[in-house]
């Protein structure tokens, strides 16, 4: 996660504490319902301190917490996300990300949960778009390794398939957050594997 230059170790720790507290509030309440005053109160931070670490105010802070959540999300999928080259590796990835989502206090993807509220924040929307682009690229790299290994058909469009997987996943997580049950989460991974298997060289395996 990028941070302002010139901060001391104590300053970096304070900024990280603010970001973590803000992330918890936003995940529970939403971006628009979480104010800077809420964050100040939760972190016992003065207004001047808050703007010292986040000069542009809320857009800076939400961008920072988006990067922080993205780092958590990607770390939870590793090393499997970087090693998608067999059906077994995809199964391990599924288990890792399912475990991560089950641990979320408000049911749902910490990145996807913010998307519907970000249309008026260009800076934040750009940060989220970078997260989606990176995630899709990592999934696409795994699909292309499966093609090279002869497990997926050579005519498989890795870019389109990776985008479909991400779309299926986020749609399922929205339902999980709405219903407050894990059934949509389990169903979504079944759908992802069915989508992958539809491109398999040997679908019966």
Task: Describe, in plain words, how this protein is organized in 3D.
With 205 residues, the chain is an all-alpha fold. The protein has helices spanning 9-29, 36-43, 47-53, 58-77, 87-102, 122-148, 158-179, 183-197. It is built from eight helices and no strands. GO terms for molecular function: DNA binding. Keywords: DNA-binding, Transcription, Transcription regulation. Residues 12-72 form the HTH tetR-type domain.
What is the element layout, followed by pairings?
Layout: H1 9-29, H2 36-43, H3 47-53, H4 58-77, H5 87-102, H6 122-148, H7 158-179, H8 183-197
CA-based gyration radius: 19 Å
- The fold-level CATH name is Tetracycline Repressor, domain 2
Mean of the pLDDT scores? 87
Structural class: mainly alpha
| Poorly predicted runs of 5 or more residues | none
Largest sheet: none
Q: Provide the CATH top-level class.
A: Mainly Alpha
Strand content of the residues, in percent? under 5%
> H/E series, N to C?
HHHHHHHH
Count of helical regions: 8
What's the number of extended β-strand segments? 0
Name the CATH homologous superfamily: Tetracycline Repressor, domain 2
Whole-number count of domains: 1
Helix content: 55-70%
Categorize the overall geometry: elongated
Distance between the termini: 41 Å
CATH architecture: Orthogonal Bundle
